[in-house]
């Protein structure tokens, strides 16, 4: 079956801010499926901060590869429906997740590892939730929040937890997991509306806008005796503030460093790293894809909480594949809440 597909391609590496002009939309005729390949019609495609690192000419050492210019952007999570299959494990009508996003139709080689395994073609169980939730709490976002707290931070009874970027995809789940596990949770985000969302909708104990005065002062006000865990999605000034307020045996789960992703120059590290020595702190980086063995567990735990109405889930959906670059710019600028997704419109769907 000859299929004409649309895909987003990178035409220039952005220096600083991401703009739609760094991308183009290309129409291609997909080749006939080879043995082991599956044709998927994408329904939703993901917008992740990590893409900003892959848009660089060369990304951070040891991380995902940079996207090639004028080529499909492989390694972006997507969910969709199998249209045609030449792999016996998949059949037309199957709901699947995979890493061949930012295009409407994808030829996916079954069994080929993508996004560290998170994006390898897999069936999704839509009785647990709609497909797009597998780009959120039932998928990699949920796994990131869950292992970040349980493995990265070794969450312990009585811990006071600070979650940054707490109104975002990972942060909103991490903050709620910590809350549901019985902790005092402080959230930070970039606007008054988001702060209200953290308190009123997610039920956090305290929240602040990091633009509004000193981060350390906010943390001291919310936790006068200090914090025990910092779930770090931001790096930079946030990590510096955490080091200043973590108490003895505190832990940092280093999830990401979004404050650095658009910088054109290397960013300085915290000037108070000695606090790690002074207070027996542990700073542990983690990648969710290194904990795929816990995906079943995290989807199960979070799926139950979602079904019971105890876990809130918010997404910002931008319609139209051609708006994916704009969606990325909006998410990086803090102009979205919860998981940022693009709904893919496909002809004849
Ligand atoms: N380790 C892993 O396996 C893994 C997996 C997935 C994601 N991550 C990381 O987790 C973090 C969150 O990812 P996500 O998908 O959940 O994104 P997200 O939180 O939904 O979106 C990113 C948010 O970060 C905030 N932000 C942007 N620039 C900032 C700055 N300079 N200072 C403070 N906040 C800033 C913005 O919200 P505000 O309005 O609040 O500023 C923005 O909306 C990222 O660092 C990402 O790289 C790690």
How is this fold's topology laid out?
Elements: E1 3-10, E2 23-30, E3 37-46, H1 50-54, E4 78-85, E5 95-98, E6 105-109, E7 122-123, H2 140-152, E8 160-163, H3 169-180, E9 184-189, H4 192-201, E10 206-209, H5 215-222, E11 227-232, H6 236-245, E12 246-254, H7 275-278, E13 282-285, H8 295-307, E14 315-319, H9 324-332, E15 339-343
Helix pairs in contact: 2-3, 2-8, 5-6
Bound molecules: NADP nicotinamide-adenine-dinucleotide phosphate.
Task: Describe the protein's architecture and organization.
- The chain is built from 9 helices and 15 strands.
- The protein is α/β, with parallel strands linked by helices and 349 residues long.
- Helix 6 (236-245) links the parallel strand 11 and strand 12 (246-254).
- The longest helix is centred in the middle third of the chain and has 13 residues, at 140-152.
- It is globular and about 65 Å long.
- The relative contact order is 0.15.
- The mean pLDDT is 96.
- The site of NADP nicotinamide-adenine-dinucleotide phosphate (NAP) has 29 residues, from helix 3 and helix 9.
- NADP nicotinamide-adenine-dinucleotide phosphate binds at residues 48-50, 144, 165, 167-171, 189-191, 194, 210, 233-234, 255-256, 258-259, 286-288, 331-332, 334, 336, 340.
